[in-house]
Write a structure and sequence with these properties.
- The protein is of the alpha+beta class and 331 residues long.
- It has helices at residues 2-31, 77-87, 94-104, 152-166, 244-252, and strands spanning 52-55, 65-71, 117-121, 124-128, 134-138, 174-186, 190-201, 203-204, 207-208, 213-217, 223-228, 233-240, 257-260, 267-278, 288-300, 307-314.
- It has 2 domains: 37-70 and 235-320, Lipocalin, CATH 2.40.128; 73-233, no CATH class.
- The longest helix is centred in the N-terminal third of the chain and has 30 residues, at 2-31.
- The relative contact order is 0.19.
Length: 331
């Protein structure tokens, strides 16, 4: 009898030890999950007004995992800056040549502070950031900023010719649309379009990047501005993402970022659900390019005009994300 009791006690002790080992292993495995930064959408926390979201489109089919990309600083900002200067169709003065020569021997900017490299050369303001983003702005336009921009077709031809000649367009980028970016209204609502922008979409493994590449064209089909919001990246591991239905539920429970929409309570019809890579604004310090669901549609309320709305929901499953987004801005 005593031996039987001793065996029972031994089994109980052994079983308890096994349970403790299993629990410890599970906890260790959970603690070893690599967590990636949450998306900082460029603004403070968004408080969504109560709305009813009504699905008016079919839920798309999405992969179960999507790769994330680590932002990779350039090896030499000075060398990349000189490439931009060489690509631009500009006439350089002796003063410009002196600036270029000094840049060839200048120390590299401090990457730790996300310090950009800027200079005015050949009538262009050139601003380059460590992660590969840049803006090119023409200082003065001989045609004058009050003149009318060409038609959308002419603007598209001018932008296509420019990117073909300069080789600045990121590999694989595709034309998306032409939009009015500098306008004035006169008299009884007459609108004058001073310049139009041409947007080219960039992608990673077939998923569109939210940044993109834009060429602004002014009067006489003159290129007046170029903006590249894409960053240099290296691929990281694929991460599990929410299904479109799970993302929709987060939208309905206000776990989202409302980028645009009405300031009143409304019924929000969901007309579009897309998966994209969030890339944020120029000069924002970003360590990873992460996937995001973008919801768009029409908001309708009694006695109000209907308006368009847009919202973002982080796509990566929350157990692989840090608790809070980190906002970093640099001028």
């Amino acid at each position: 009898m005593k031996n039987r009791n001793r065996r029972v006690i031994t089994w109980l002790i052994a079983g308890a030890l096994i349970i403790c080992v299993v629990i410890a292993a599970v906890q260790l495995r959970g603690s070893s999950v690599r967590r990636f930064p949450r998306i900082a959408f460029g603004e403070g926390p968004t408080v969504c007004r109560p709305r009813t979201f009504v699905l008016r489109t079919a839920l798309p089919t999405m992969p179960s995992k999507v790769r994330v990309y680590k932002v990779q600083p350039m090896e030499s900002m000075n060398a990349e800056f000189l490439k931009l200067v060489e690509a631009l169709p500009i006439a350089r003065s002796p003063e410009d040549e002196a600036k270029i020569e000094r840049l060839k021997h200048a120390p590299e900017p401090q990457r730790e502070e996300n310090q950009g490299l800027a200079s005015c050369i050949g009538g262009w303001d050139i601003m380059l950031y460590p992660d590969g983003q840049y803006s090119l702005d023409k200082i003065d336009s001989p045609a004058g900023r009050n003149a009318q921009a060409p038609s959308a077709e002419e603007v598209r031809r001018a932008a296509d010719a420019f990117v073909s000649r300069t080789k600045l367009l990121p590999e694989g980028a595709q034309f998306v649309r032409v939009y009015d970016c500098d306008t004035s209204e006169w008299g009884l609502g007459d609108k004058v379009v001073h310049s139009r922008g041409v947007v080219y979409a960039c992608s990673l493994e077939g998923i569109t990047r939210a940044g993109g590449f834009t060429v602004e064209v002014g009067p006489r089909s003159e290129i007046v501005s170029v903006t590249n919001k894409t960053r240099h990246t290296i691929p990281e591991q694929p991460l599990p993402i929410l299904s479109p239905n799970e993302a929709l539920e987060k939208l309905r429970s206000n776990e989202c970022h409302m980028a645009d929409g009405p300031s009143w309570d409304a019924t929000a019809y969901v007309d579009s659900i897309k998966l994209m890579y969030w890339e944020s604004i120029l000069a924002m310090d970003l360590s990873y390019i992460m996937p995001v669901y973008i919801f768009e549609g029409e908001a309708v309320a009694p006695g109000k005009r209907s308006v368009r709305w847009k919202a973002h929901v982080e796509a990566v499953r929350p157990e692989f994300l840090e608790k809070k987004p980190v906002y970093k801005y640099h001028e």
